């Protein structure tokens, strides 16, 4: 099962964003479509940025994942 996770954008290069997931650094596409900037929290699935998320929503999602044992 694949799950979308939240992370922090650390760098933008064109349509690519470097995203930090608690120390795991990945490159995700869609930065220009969603219009993200470094410091934004984003929801990423399969290497694509799905949307920006608020700190509160990201925290809630992380808590839900912990509750079901995903983390």
How would you describe what is shown here?
It contains 2 helices and 5 strands; from the N terminus they run E-E-E-H-E-E-H. It has 71 residues and is an alpha+beta fold. The model has no long low-confidence stretch (mean pLDDT 91). A 5-stranded antiparallel β-sheet has the order 3-2-1-4-5.
Physical arrangement of strands within the biggest beta sheet: 3-2-1-4-5
Largest sheet: 5 strands, antiparallel
Count of extended strands: 5
Gross morphology: globular
Order of helices and strands: EEEHEEH
Specify the helix fraction band: 10-25%
Strand content: over 45%
Distance between the ends: 14 Å
Uncertain parts: none
Q: From the helix content, strand content and strand pairing, which structural class follows? A: alpha+beta
CA-based gyration radius: 12 Å
Mean pLDDT: 91
Work out the helix count. 2
């Amino acid at each position: 099962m694949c799950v979308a996770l939240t992370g922090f954008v650390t760098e933008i290069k064109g349509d690519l964003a470097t995203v930090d997931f608690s120390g795991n650094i990945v490159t995700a596409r869609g930065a220009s479509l969603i219009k993200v900037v470094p410091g934004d929290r984003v929801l990423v699935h399969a290497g694509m940025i799905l949307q920006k998320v608020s700190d509160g929503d990201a925290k809630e999602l992380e808590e839900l994942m912990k509750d079901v044992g995903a983390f």
